[in-house]
Every structure is written in structure tokens, then in C-alpha cells.
Fold this sequence. Notes:
By secondary structure, the chain is an alpha/beta fold. The protein has helices spanning 2-18, 36-45, 79-93, 109-112, 131-142, 167-173, 248-253, 284-298, 313-321, 337-346, 373-386, 402-414, 430-438, 490-498, 514-530, and strands at residues 19-21, 59-63, 67-68, 71-72, 97-101, 117-121, 146-150, 188-193, 208-212, 228-233, 257-264, 267-272, 324-328, 351-355, 389-394, 419-422, 442-448, 463-465, 479-482, 503-506. Strand 19 (479-482), helix 14 and strand 20 (503-506) form a beta-alpha-beta unit.
Amino acid sequence: MLKHLLLIILFSAFSVLAQSTYDGMPDNWDPTGIPDRAKTKILRASPKTASVTPKKPRTLLVTNFHFNDKKVVCGHPSIPYSNFAIRQMAKNTGAYKVVFSNDTLMFKKENLKNFDAVCFNNTAGVLFEDKQLRRNLLEFVYSGGGFMGIHAAGATFCQWPEYGQFPEFGKMLGGYENGGHPWGPDDVITLEVEEPGHPLNAGFPMRFFRVMDEVFQFKDHYSREKLRILLTINTGLTDMSEDRRILPERRADGDLAISWVRQYGRGRVFYTSLGHNAHINWDTIILQHYLDAIQFVLGDLDAPVTPSAKLTPAVQAREQLGVDIGFAASKDAAKTLFQAIEAAAQHGIYNLSSVEALPVTAGKPAFSPLLSDDDLWDIRFKLLDAGVRLKSYKLENLPGSEDSLTVLLDFCRKMGMETVICNSGQTISDIAIKYAADRNMIILQAFRSSQLKNLSVSPRSVFVFSDNCHVVWPEGLAGVSAAPDALTQETFWRNIFTAKVNFIELSGIGIFELPGSVEKTNQKMINLAANK
């Protein structure tokens, strides 16, 4: 009995050490005894207000694991300082609650669902090898969660000289630290704010600034085709001498990114190479960058994520107008889902909706909840490689039972989709709407404009698509499908902005007809943005 009691006490003590939150803890919460003068500097530098008001209460999980040769080792000395800064910004702004934990069981599905985002603060090494826990992390982000990586997060789930222990993590993050760090902790580098107008760069008052910090260079998985670059090293104002051991690829293109964001399914990812040195955590503009990144991954700060290499004039116009376009995949427009993904990417369309009857590939089953987890991962990787995401799933009828409805909605959520669209002949039950809302999704009903004349419609349950631009949109509806002949008509575009539509889906369009329709839409958006 005594032995069991001691085990319970020890387990309880470990749990307290493994997980802590600032709520209810004293103001001098300090797990490692950082100097008071450093605390004072962080307190002075920490932003006092959030950039945006949270849409709902948010919780951020922060972990600091550092593994080497399957052993827990002491991580970066800057960890307690950045933890303190993250905690202080939460306390100052009320934008989020923060939980600090180095318990791998936090990555079980039932635990991850309690968080809006996860932060790997200077984690390093292979944190865990359990395949299910790894999938849980990826699915958490892909289905709409957020992920933030600070500095050595880029050296996580890998250990030199190998970088293939968990390649899917590197794909999600945007790269592995597989190029080393040409600049050490005592080196000074000049950073450039690559996109001053981006919401996560709003705290930078200047285009160029200097920092003393150790930063990484990236090779595998790093690509401007996949990432929206925010900060870079200015190679003209930074020591690039031969002894820096800069990768041949990076010396050739001078592309040494420091901070970026990306879309991962429906999830939001931010990474910064900054954070090796403790003093970074009392730099006011860097902390503002951190706070805006936290609000972004939590889902409160909206920010564009189209990769830098894909920022054509048309994409920039879409971002300025707040209207995006997508491709409606159907058996008439594409023979397989993979074909639709390839066609969308080829024509610069990065959103896609699919129908339940569409085969994944030739001779393979249809895209549906019946697919195995491995099949779903193959589809995710295809989407990620193409830079395309699924927005919605169209089916003839919603399942009748609550269990079947749960399976459908969980499938759509896992695949990063926002909307389920059913036909106009079905009544959408309150329980279906609730189940969808619980997963941050909506269920819409498809009506042709001619059907709306004698119908009483609800903004939350009606999806309207155009026959010939005679369309009535319920107030607040987020998206609409357009036939090709509507795209050049002023009535169509006037209704788009009157109804505050933010997504246009090119529907009923075959692959070979697609380029002309995209060109019409893009040109119209460029003209509207120029005159805005």
C-alpha cells in the first residue's frame, strides 16, 4: 500500500513538472531562475496589447523537448527567457492562455484537441518515435490547428548527420536545419523585411535591421514555391565570406530566409530561425513579430499565405480584394482527383472542391470516408506537393444517422476542408449544423438561382451557384460558384462585393476550358484592385 502511495505521489510530482500554466501562478513564475534584470528587460519589451481581438478564448501549448541519442539533454539556454516572454505576452494582452509541457502524451488526440496551436520553442532531436503521435501532430495542424516553430524547431525530428527520421514534419515546417548555421551566436547579420505590408511584419518600423544571433540555412523541403517569406538575410550587408560554409544552393541564389508562414491543409504554420540568444527575447520588435505569429497560428490574425514564388499580379489582386478563386472538380471536369489537383496547380488555382463520386486515381476507389488513413495521407502529400488545398466536399445527400454524419464530418475535417455541400432537395437538420460547427465547419445546400425565387433561405445553410448571373445571395454567405459567362458581367461582380463573398468557385468548367475562365477572372480582379 505504501509503495503504491509513493508511486502516486511521484507520478503527481512529475505531472506538475511536465505541465504548467501561468494561470493562477505568481508573477515571478520562473522555472530556472533567470536573472531579475533579464526579467525586467522582457517585461519592458513585451507588447501590452494584442494586434487583433481574439475570436474566441485561445490556448497555446508550448514544449521545449531536446533529445540527443534518445536521451533528454539540456536545451538552448535561451529557452526559459523565451518561455517567460511568451507567458508575459499572454498575461499582458489576454490574447491566449499558455500551457508549458514536455509530456509526450500531450500529443495524443484527446489532449491536442484542447489547444488551438502548438509551439516548438527551441525543441531539437527526435522527440518521439511513436507513429501515431507523429500522425496526431500532423493531423492536428492539417485539420485547422496552428504550429509555431522557434529557432531549433528546424532541427527537430532529425539528428545530425541524418535528416530523414520524420520527413513529413520537415515538409510541414517548410524545411530542416540540414545546412548548419554559417553565423554563430556572436555574429551580427543584417535582416531585411521582405514584405513590409504583411500583417506579421507590422511591428518592424524599418526595412533593414541588424541582430546578433545564430541562424540556420535550409536545403531539403525549403522552397519559395511552398512558403511565404517574411524575413531574409540581406547578403549585401552581411558577411558572406568563404569560411561561412554557406551551402552552394544558397550562395548561388542568396535565398537565406529567417521567418516564413505557410498553409498546411487548413492549418497555419509559422517558423523563425531567430531565438538562439536570450537577448532576442527583450527586443521589442522581435517580440511583436512573435506575438503576431502567435495570433496568426491561433487563428485570430488573418494573413496571406500564398507562397512568395506564386505572387503574380492576379494573386496580389485577389489578396487586396479579399476574394479568392477555386476549381470545382467533378467527373465532367476531371476524371480523377489527382488530375483535378494537377490541373488546378497548372493554371494557378490553389483551392479545390471535390465530389464524392470522383476516383482518387484511375482504377482507385472514390474520394470518400471509406478510404484508409494511408490513402488519405497519399492525397494530402499530393495536395501539398502541388500547393493546392481542398475547400469543400460535395455529395448528393447527407448521411441519415448521427454516427455516419460524424464519420463524414471527421473525414472532411481531417482533409482540411471547411464546407460540406449537399443538394437542394434535402433538409439540413439542426444536429448536422451543430456537428459541423463543433468542427469549425459549415454545411451548405446547393440551389440554382431559378430555385430561389419562391424559397425562404438561410445564410447558414444555402449555397448558391449561378446559371446566368441572376443570383440572389443570402447576407453573409462566404462563397459562390460562377459559370464562365458570368465572369465578365458587372452584375456578377457587384453582387460579389455587395454580399461580401470571399470565395469564387469556377464551376461546370472542363479542364480544357479552364485557362480562359481563369484569365477572365484574374484580369477582372486586377482591374478592380487597381481602382480600389
